[in-house]
Design goal:
Length: 134
């Protein structure tokens, strides 16, 4: 009987708990996936990271949306390659990645648009997406 309770106690130590980006303020994350998806009414640009990240969206320049992922590096070169989306029926023309080096390395995702379009931010755990209305 004691072994059963001991096993349960050990298992409970490994149960994952949700983590907020604020809790990991000083820790470096990794961008693990940059992607593009087409839906019937929207085009989605998304990024996945190893942990939740703090981010800033800048839409002050016409035709360009910039997303700064704080404390985020890109360890695999394939995740730095541009996504050429010009052949899709989408307001998104191109998605590029800029690595910002410094005391707190960050990554900027630059989304070039054919035309200005409304977008919606979606954040869930370690995934951030921008849905552009088609």
């Amino acid at each position: 009987m004691n072994r059963f309770y001991t096993a349960l106690a050990c298992i409970s130590l490994f149960v994952a708990t949700p983590v907020n980006a604020e809790d990991l303020a000083g820790e470096l994350r990794d961008l693990t996936w940059l992607g593009f998806q087409q839906f019937q009414d929207a085009s989605r640009v998304f990024v996945k990271t190893t942990e939740p990240v703090n981010y800033q969206v800048d839409d002050s320049k016409p035709g360009v949306i910039s997303v700064l992922l704080e404390n985020t590096a890109v360890s695999k070169r394939i995740n730095t390659l541009p996504l050429d989306t010009r052949y899709f029926e989408s307001p998104v023309r191109m998605v590029t990645v800029e690595i910002i080096e410094g005391a707190s390395p960050s990554t900027r995702i630059v989304i070039s648009l054919r035309e200005d379009a409304e977008f919606k931010e979606i954040k869930k755990d370690n995934m951030l997406a921008l849905d552009f209305r088609r």
